[in-house]
Predict the structure.
Amino acid sequence: MNASLFRRSMRSAPPPGDLTRNDRFAELLVVALAVAALILGLSLRQQSANQTWRYENREAGVEASYPAGWLVDERGDYVVRIRDPYARPFKTQYQIRIIPAGGQTSIRNVLDGLTLQRSTDLAAYRVFSVDEVPVGGAMLTQMSFAFVDADPNPFIQRLPVVVRGMDVVIRDGDRAIVVTYMAAEDVFEENRAAFERFLASLRY
């Protein structure tokens, strides 16, 4: 390129730092697409959080709707345990268990039995309160508790987690249906509304 051609090309090029109309349009398009992707992601997350699957156990005579994608376990001393697979380090969970409560067995007897068992199985287990609460137009007994969850595997290094829990006891003839919610202390209140929806969906 000779000197005259070089000078002409420099005159026609935009000064450094000066954006052309196409450059500005491209920048705005990138920002708009990023905002749209963010809104879409939040929308899909909200829809996913509100989706439920149905659990049914005909032998126990119970069914309820739980958050979609949660894991169902029926192999313990409960009818079912339903856990959030993504919760860390403690998996937020719901449990349903059925305890015989015929004759003179009171709701308080049922809760005392749970407390005795948990005091043996769970570290630093403490009961905070036992109250009568309105649930779905009925007065039910609710017990609030907490314990410390530590991984028993010595090769996994993580700090113990304070877990809060809540039992709601429903008297159904000669049995007590105990519906339990447990979550790490820092997310307990945040996830409580979802548990209340699970409880409201319970049929027996």
User: Anything to note?
Assistant: The mean pLDDT is 86.
